[in-house]
């Protein structure tokens, strides 16, 4: 039976409303006054050069990069230049704010893609909770208003995961060619934005393998993983009129891993990524280990409202595939430079897993829908407070662990320790009491949940917002700003030759 228009509206209207809410929130915070003087300035400089000189200038841009700023992102990230040039054509002047608009649109796409992936893998309620959780991610709220390329990279990775899910789970030849082409395009652009996709290929292969039933890999999967880097390389060769300077660019990228900024702020133990993610979203990442145990089969999955135990098992298998992707990405960066920007795709994957845990595993009983709303709102209040405290008031420009810990005053030292007042503890205790009443006393359910939401918002939000900022305006390294015009550095180019 074909779905009616009313059923389609009922399925997508709530999710669409949440995506619109996420777009409004991101556009509301698109107000960065000062961008970093590292990668953000470098991206803006390259985009301005291509916008004013055209793509014919690309070979000289490569030589300029090697002569002056080899420690910063290389021009073989032509995807950043492509989207930056497009933004500059639509907006003037061509500067970091134009690139920030690319990130904002990519941030909206991240929320929408989380919704689409959840609708493909799980139930509609899970999709709504996952979308609501993705709206208030402090990390993606911040990257969605900066001139970095990481939010765009995450959107392209999620688009490729959506295409892989359709290729793995749909019947053969059901729009297979369209999803295959979309996956190739998304991964090609992802390669052109950040070469770190090389370390994520095992995660993509694991997801494709685990989503199939029965689990298997096809010969076409090799094309999915090998064609995109070849296509990205061909585009670079075409823009650069050959392979010249490619080896020098790769050597410069490798040497940038031992740049003083990287050694000071982007090193640490293998589990550092999990610590940083937990710091920004402790409520959500505290539930992630529970979701992992449930996906591995150590917790019973309850059937969906309209489903059977077999559907619950299918949901667990799909969640297990997400968990494998998460673990593979985290393991890839265990011994690489560590910065939340590099592995921010872990954040939406974690939100998908936690949404599945809350909606399809934990036996809430009758007040499940209301409790999902209460939990999402309480988590949103806390995450928005952390985002405002860390990235708006303290103006952290690069989400490294030291900058985040300093903004949130997590490290004891010269900073005066913060102690919550008694009324904050009373509010938190009262919220727990109302939560218990809402769950077990149906007579007071509606009113108690309303009080629980309001008190949770007050308890989590105000202590974070009222604390003063103590971090500098920027935490990115200072660089000597060299003009990009060819006349100003032609002697250096001649020496480089």
Mean pLDDT: 80
The count of domains is 2
Total beta strands: 0
State the helix count.
22
Order of helices and strands: HHHHHHHHHHHHHHHHHHHHHH
The termini sit apart by 68 Å
- Dominant shape: globular
Give the structural class: mainly alpha
Low-confidence stretches: 1-8, 464-473, 477-497
Fraction of residues in β-strands: under 5%
Rg = 24 Å
Largest sheet, strands/sense/barrel: none
Helix content: 55-70%
What is this structure, in a nutshell?
The chain is mainly alpha-helical. The chain has 22 helices and no strands.
Write the layout of secondary structure elements.
Blueprint: H1 5-28, H2 39-53, H3 58-68, H4 78-90, H5 96-121, H6 124-135, H7 138-143, H8 150-169, H9 176-193, H10 201-211, H11 219-240, H12 246-255, H13 260-265, H14 272-280, H15 282-295, H16 309-332, H17 346-360, H18 368-393, H19 401-407, H20 422-440, H21 445-466, H22 486-496
Structural account:
- 69% of the residues lie in helices and 0% in strands.
- By secondary structure, the protein is mainly alpha-helical.
- It folds into two domains: 15-273, no CATH class; 365-412 and 423-473.
- α1 (5-28) packs parallel to α6 (124-135), α14 packs across α15 and α18 (368-393) packs parallel to α21 (445-466).
- The longest helix has 26 residues, at 96-121.
- Residues 1-8, 464-473 and 477-497 have low confidence and may be disordered.
Name some characteristics of this structure.
497 residues; mainly alpha; 2 domains; 22 helices; disordered C terminus
